[in-house]
Amino acid sequence: MSDLQALIFDVDGTLAETERDGHRLAFNQAFAELGLDWHWDVPTYGRLLAITGGKERMLHDWQQRDPQAAGRPEAAALIAELHRRKTTHYVRIVGEGALALRPGVARLLAEARDAGLRLAIATTTTPDNVEALLRSTLGAAGVDLFEVIGAGDVVPRKKPDPGIYTWVLERMGLQPAHCLAFEDSANGYRAATAAGLRTVVTTGTYTRDETFDGALAWLDGLGEAGDPARGIAAGSPWSGVVDLATLRRWAA
Ligand code: XBP
Ligand code: MG
Questions:
Q1: Quick one: 210 exposed, middle or buried, by C-beta within 10 A (0-12, 13-18, 19+)?
Q2: How far are the Cα atoms of 66, 198, 237 from residue 234, in angstroms, in the given order?
Q3: What structural domains does the chain harbor?
Q4: What is the pTM of this model?
Q5: What are the tens digits of pLDDT across the range 130-169?
Q6: What gap in Å lies between CA 155 and CA 157, rounded to an integer?
Q7: Is residue 213 annotated as a catalytic residue, yes or no?
Q8: Three-state DSSP class for residue 183
Q9: Which of 12, 61, 161, 184 is catalytic?
Q10: Could you say which ligand is closest to the alpha carbon of residue 58?
Q11: Concatenated DSSP letters for 116-128?
């Protein structure tokens, strides 16, 4: 790879563990609010994460349980209303400070910013959710760290489609060879890889049993001093703290 110019981050599962105690709770609150007897427990939600995008996930689950009702013309309006309410709940949960960045994320973002690297986000989640998370974890300046935020429905197809990564790369005017992606899930890894990006995978709560053969690094986190990450990097067992020097070495 020629010189490293930008880092592109997924959000859910990568910047923070948002799914189990953030998105899942918000979905359940929206279901209850509209008087539905739908409820996603922790393992059920884990299985449903195979479907990216909240609206798509709800519709898929409904189609599995009651294809006739999910096929009615008014189904789309209910999904849209549920998703509006779910987003409101998620933004409130995050605003209350319920979710923290994963270890090493703030450190690496600050180091990259200080070194003049360009930063971006490529996520399937709704833009309001990204802003709420960045604001609550990094303060008001958190959003400004990122030159481009590609999120939600700005592209017609969500991950594992590469569209959101391609959208971000086009807006930054960058070739994938000058960037690295950060992902936590098989769907995200497929999206980044299909966009031509080399990817550092940090698995988490719902993704530690997924496989990421061929990833630039496949780790259990970014690591911090005294609490190193573990996994495979550049094809060999690796343990340490992922900093800019490490990324440049892997990318070289
Ligand atoms: C994350 C998602 C998102 C969230 C819900 O995937 O699939 O849909 O679960 O967000 P990734 P919305 O980390 O690969 O981007 O309800 O706003 O869609
Ligand atoms: Mg993710």
A1: middle
A2: 46, 11, 8
A3: 6-16+101-251 (3.40.50.1000), 19-95 (1.10.150.240)
A4: 0.97
A5: 999 999 999 999 999 999 999 999 999 999 999 999 999 9
A6: 6
A7: no
A8: strand
A9: 12
A10: 1
A11: T-EEEEEESS-HH
